[in-house]
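dumping the sequnces here before i forget
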Amino acid sequence: MNKNLTSISKQALWQNNPALVQLLGLCPLLAVSASVVNALGLALATTMVLIFSNLIVSLIRHQVTDAIRLPVFVLIIASFVTCAELLMQAYAYSLYLSIGIFIPLIVTNCAILGRAVTFAVKNSPLISAFDGLMMGLGFSSILILLGALRELFGTGKLFANMDILLPMASNWEITILPNYSGFLFALLPPGAFLFMGMLLALKNFIDKQLADSITKHQNAQQMASRFAKDMS
Amino acid sequence: MAVKKIKLPTKLKAFSTSLIMLWVLAACIPGLVALTVFFGWGSIINIIWLGIWALLFESMVLVFRKRPLGFYLKDYSALVTAVLLGLCIPPSSPWWLSLTGIFFAIVIAKHLYGGLGQNLFNPAMVAYAVLLIAFPLEMTNWTIPLGIEQEIDAYTGATALDLFRNERGAMLVNEFWSQHSAFGTLSGIGWEWVNGGFLLGGLVLLYKRIIGWQIPVAMLGSLLLMSALFYDGGSSASGGSPFMHLFGGGTMLGAFFIATDPVTASTTPKGRLIYGALIGIVTYIIRVWGAYPDGIAFAVLLGNFTAPFIDYYTQPTPSQHA
Amino acid sequence: MSELIIILISAILVNNFVLVQFLGLCPFMGSSNKIETAIGMSAATTFVLTLASMVSYLVYQYLLVPLDITWLRTIAFIVVIAALVNFTEILMLKTSPLLHKVLGIFLPLITTNCAVLGVALLNINAGNSFVESAFYGFGAALGFSLVLVLFAALREKLNLADVPAPFQGPSIAMITAALMSLAFMGFTGLV
Amino acid sequence: MPSELRHSILLNTGRLAGFAIAAAIILSLVYALTETRITNQMLAAQRQALNSIFPASEHDNDLISDSFIIDINSSEYSNLELLGLRENSHAYVARKNMQPSGLILPFVARDGYNGDIDLLLGVSIEGLVTGLRVTAHRETPGLGDLIDLRVSDWILSFNNRSLVNPELSGWTVRKNAGVFDQFTGATITPRAVTVATAKALEFFEENKSRLLSL
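..and the predicted 3d for all of it:
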């Protein structure tokens, strides 16, 4: 059981990360990552929708026949997206003004429908909700990382305007690079594509390093055991 | 789809590649001389600075990828990229601007695609476009041509193309030229000479058959056609005279030295005509109606973007070969 | 008329759906491996996108607005799009099996193409009329098709390149998209 | 068989309808709970934007409800073309103790580098600029978009200016012998904004009584 949860987390956060590996939900990921606050707003909304849609899909999985599965799932997801939109309008209106159009588009984020169809229909509600949370975090971490990178390279600052999401965060802005004249490229569309490409390469690079160190480790063990055998 | 893969230089090829690159470098000299005469030593300093970093970045990537250093460095292609970029950016550019540019050119546009012969986009133009959208202020800040400082003191920076965009609408084009006589009669003092220099160098390259005629002819022709079509004798809505477009900004450098880059251009004869014409038309559109003063870099990148598609549909059929 | 041309130029070049507005990236990355696939995808998407922007306009103006339930637009549009895709598939099967054979496999993918939902929402945000909506949808689809087909041609050339190991696959495709987007930045300010 | 098929269709339709109804009920509930708050938030955001152009301390009325539409085909005004408007737009009257204390006027600078720049001008009854904001523009990023308050605070340099401070000839950028700063490198955008603002002020002076009686 515990092992199961660990493997879900590992899958969602790294090996099968929805943004880095499955390349799902790229549209909002690239469009809303020009600053940390926008990225965080979308990350929260997407994660919430993922958790609740997974939970509900799992709860009703025995009542849904194959014939009506897709329409029902889309209906559930669209409902939660509408809820998220209404709540954001009510409680973070300035944030809604800046990323508004991309909230409804969460519906077409294939990562969400994909999890409902491949995971939630086969698993118990709690596990499904946990999977939703982890998938959401996997997506969010990349989204926020991209937002932070672009904001840092673009403006030399981090966490600007955080108060439009969190009212108490009005003075969270930190200047990392003083006297930085700004690299506008990072904030414009080509910058979004480039930084995402770099993150994908970084993931590949780290995977390669990990794989290398594992094979090295295995080789060393083999050598040691062979050596031990020879000695005996 | 048959895309001609440009083979990695073998011993013999390395010699010919480097010889071609040397000719290209030599052909840049007249234009560079004109730039230096009118705008000071800035361009030469930029080229040296860019050249050093181009070689450094190239070596770093090669070492990192465990490729033989000397073998690749000998083809001078990194130097050509550095020189072309140095000729495009304003002579007064700060050091970090050119450094950013050459990083994008060599590391991202060239070596992420595997190096010479495999890049999809012209490295110098990628760098120029990145710099233009990232630092529009510094990139449109040309020093005043030497010797006429007092006369146009109020117009710090700005090439004739910039200035034209800025003043257009406020006055008739003829008034514009008479008021700014310091900018020369065709496309601004200095600029007609700079472009003339590159035209001369380009003709040498043509004569030596280092470049084909199709791309420059198609590009200049379509630019001429567009500007003649939309030039209504100089009302405030006019797009500027054909001469200004041909001899202003980076037209000649673009037509003979940049659009003709064999790696990123179209490879079929018919394709080259379409490719060149496309670049000329887009250059005009961006210059006259776009948000950035000179459109050559964007036009070349768009040309690079469409080149494989153009090639795909202009491949000579087998019967033509027979 | 010039208004409509401006809408077209804006949707195709200046605010290109894929390279500037980041809509429809999944099919852009997913179906650009071969030129033929890209052309098929483009044709199917153009058809659905144009139709969807017209139908969603009608649904919005004559159903959601009178009933004062515009906040339900997301659900309404996704239902409309799914129904439209289904309908298109049946219609195609009945009238032109050949066309269905060529384009049919792309149709289910279009439901989850965020460009389709995006165009419906953007039309409402911009307050476009019925004709304007149709042109906007058509222009967006043309812009999508243009870059998809060009990218597919480019990718065949890219497959031959000796890309450094970590950058192979989606990474270099993304970086290529960055350079394409850079080229499209030149159209900024045209309209 | 057919009866079984019909049964299954009926069952599925029933279930689908059931899910749809459940979703509708839950959504209506959420909507009902958030509706008033959303309306309030929208109004508050709009009010805040208007108050940044005309300070809340200078008026005590609700600007949103005290607005009127400037019809571009109207002949009530003299020299309406000074505003450069392309479509009918809202103007807002500011009042203190029921007396008009100023106006928020929409206008368009048509000669930006890339076309129209939409602006809102707050002007007091004495003709002083209380605030100026760009509401829509297509100027080049990094070059012309410095007129946007989110990018630079250049636009604040208009506060407390009027048609006598400076004289009309000074209402342009320094490069053209005016008193307003252009940004380095770019002239056309700041000049377009400056000149259009002066025109809007002129329009206000010429039509003051007409505008404030409304």
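Residues 2-185 of chain C form one domain.
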